Amino acid sequence: MKALLPILKNAFLISLIIIGSFSPLMAQDQTIKILTYNIYHGEDPFTPGKTNLDSIAILLNELDPDIIALQEVDSMTVRSANLYGRKVNLVDELAKKTGMDGYFAKAMDYSEGGYGEGLLVKKAEYFIHQNLPIPAGGEPRAAAWTSLKIGEKNIWIGGTHLCHQFQENRIAQVQEILGFAESKSNPIIWMGDLNFTPQDNEYQLIKANWKDAAKIAKDESSTYQSATDEGRIDYVWFSKNHFELIGYQVIHVPYSDHFPVLVELKLITP
Fold first, then answer.
1. Which positions fall inside the Endonuclease/exonuclease/phosphatase domain (predicted)?
2. What pLDDT, on the 0 to 100 scale, is given for residue 2?
3. Lowest CB count within 10 Å: 16, 107, 127, 263, which one?
């Protein structure tokens, strides 16, 4: 949610990283548990200078999701060195602590390192880094995507953090993400800190072929809370004809100014 230094626009870029061969994620029950979490660059937002990575790792291990989308992630920054005594790639550290495969999608250069999105996946094979448009200027933004198998079905899952500064950017970024997602015939899940509420115009761009997990669960409680503001700005969206919602929960823990959102979906097979 917070601002960093203004950065010039990046050219749009999609890059591909292949980790290994495909393998079924949860072939038995056709369900997947996913979590989105803005981790505030690994620092306790209410106690400046206090680290929170160990607490987050314990929480992630307890919740045991199959895939995690992380926002506000530092990689090898001076800021991380000031917190942890050395420059740290937060995704790599959380991957080690959870036993998951990690992927960092840098959105921008920051503090002698990088800042952007992360994915943690139990069985990762295939990642894509998608840069997002910033027509109004401001901070560069990115999305991270992975392709997995549930049983015999390939699915796509993405995580992102949309612009906090300009609505024009958020609208363009939603359109870019939907353009990528709707170019696939596969089941799709995308999620993250989107920096808009259900009352905003950006939300209305997301058509009825996508389902908002919170709305389906009838739980639209706040996912972001600071001393002066709160609201529901963290989401999990899924292609409506491909999944059934099994569970939705906002986890109220004090490790960030955002709460993690945990969702369980069941793949609908013909």
1. 35-258
2. 44
3. 16
CA distances from 171 to 49, 64, 201, 246 (A): 34, 33, 8, 30
Can you give the residue ranges of every domain in the chain? 14-267
Average of per-residue pLDDT values in the chain: 90
97 Cβ contact list (under 8 Å, min separation 6): 53, 54, 57, 60, 61
* pLDDT, average across residues 197-201: 97
Type of residue found at 260:
P
Compute CA distances 75 → 6, 51, 69, 105, 114, whole Å.
18, 15, 15, 10, 5
The candidate with the shortest Cα–Cα distance to 153, out of 18, 267, 21, is: 267
Share above pLDDT 90 across residues of the chain, in percent, rounded to a whole number: 83
Conformation bin of residue 7: beta by default, left when phi > 0, alpha when psi is -120 to 50: beta
Domain 14-267 has what CATH class?
alpha beta
